[in-house]
UniProtKB/TrEMBL annotation:
Protein name: Glucosamine-6-phosphate deaminase
Record-linked InterPro entries: GlcN6P_deaminase-like (IPR052960), Glucosamine6P_isomerase_CS (IPR018321), NagB/RpiA_transferase-like (IPR037171)
SUPFAM superfamilies the record matches: NagB/RpiA/CoA transferase-like
One GO MF term attached to the UniProt entry: glucosamine-6-phosphate deaminase activity
GO biological process, one term: N-acetylglucosamine metabolic process
UniProt-listed PROSITE patterns: GLC_GALNAC_ISOMERASE
Length: 273
């Protein structure tokens, strides 16, 4: 079956999308804007004396250098900020891969975010949260305790996943949206694409399992901000914005969210060039 939206021009793409779209000049502009929104929300909540709660990805990651620089330059306190990371790779025993592993998202956040922020500004370690295969109920309970998520940041996989919420064609949209933090097998498409980006194509060395927050936690956030920046995001954005809601392409289930947007460059908006 051929899907017409995959061949939509930029004009057709931006005509009545089911998820609001924001076309930006280039990838650095996207990442800077995401970092700016993070900082602005923290400043707003700090001024109110309130806690800020973000769901954070490791992919995209281009916004983190801008975020770190802005926090340090502004001397912005993160003491009332919680970062709940989306997911982490697991080993064959379905335990976290070592933080020292080059694929570890926990290791990435330590090396590139937490240790780069001035020690007097960075949030306490207990406010740097990852889904734990040994305690999958922790994050949903924590989010409820904290009063909900202010903004969920993330990307979109080639099969429409957000976090590692891989497609499950057998589920209805309503069933899929109720899925919470859990351990699952990583889809073969995801393993292939990630092996190209992270391991120079070494597919056999890609983890087969992961722990991820669910679509329930993401869809319940007050705001959702997604960034797309790769060649193949041309098709992903078109499917997300114009496809039908289905667990076959999970990001479509976020259509109709009260405050969501997908940011991408003019490069992605155009099918050529």
């Amino acid at each position: 079956m051929e899907h017409k939206y995959y061949s939509y021009s930029k004009q057709e793409l931006l005509n009545a999308p089911k998820i609001p779209l924001m076309v930006m000049e280039d990838n650095p502009t996207i990442f800077r804007s995401l970092a700016e929104e993070m900082v602005q929300e923290i400043e707003r909540k700090n001024a109110l004396g309130e806690t800020t709660v973000f769901i954070c990805p490791v992919g995209p990651v281009g916004h983190y250098p801008y975020f770190v620089d802005m926090v340090n330059q502004k001397n912005l306190s993160l003491k009332q900020v919680w970062f709940i990371n989306m997911d982490e790779y697991l080993d064959d025993n379905k335990q976290w891969i070592a933080k020292e592993h080059k694929l570890s998202f926990r290791g990435f956040m330590d090396r590139n975010v937490y240790t780069k922020i001035k020690p007097e500004l960075v949030m306490p370690e207990e406010q740097r949260v990852f889904p734990d295969p040994e305690n999958i109920g922790h994050i949903p309970a924590l989010i409820e305790k904290l009063g909900g998520v202010d903004i969920a940041f993330g990307g979109i996989g080639i099969n429409g996943h957000v976090a590692f919420n891989e497609p499950q064609d057998e589920l209805s949209p309503e069933e899929f949206l109720q899925l919470k933090t859990r351990v699952l097998d990583i889809a073969k498409e995801t393993r292939a694409v990630n092996s190209i980006g992270d391991l120079n194509g070494a597919l056999d060395d890609m983890p087969r399992y992961c722990v991820t927050i669910g679509m329930h936690e993401i869809s319940s956030a007050r705001k959702i901000r997604l960034g797309c920046f790769r060649d193949w995001h041309r098709a992903v954005v078109r499917h997300a914005a114009h496809g039908e809601k289905a667990a076959h392409f999970p990001v479509t289930l976020l259509q109709g969210h009260q405050d969501i947007s997908i940011r991408f460059s003019d490069f992605v908006a155009n099918l050529e060039g």
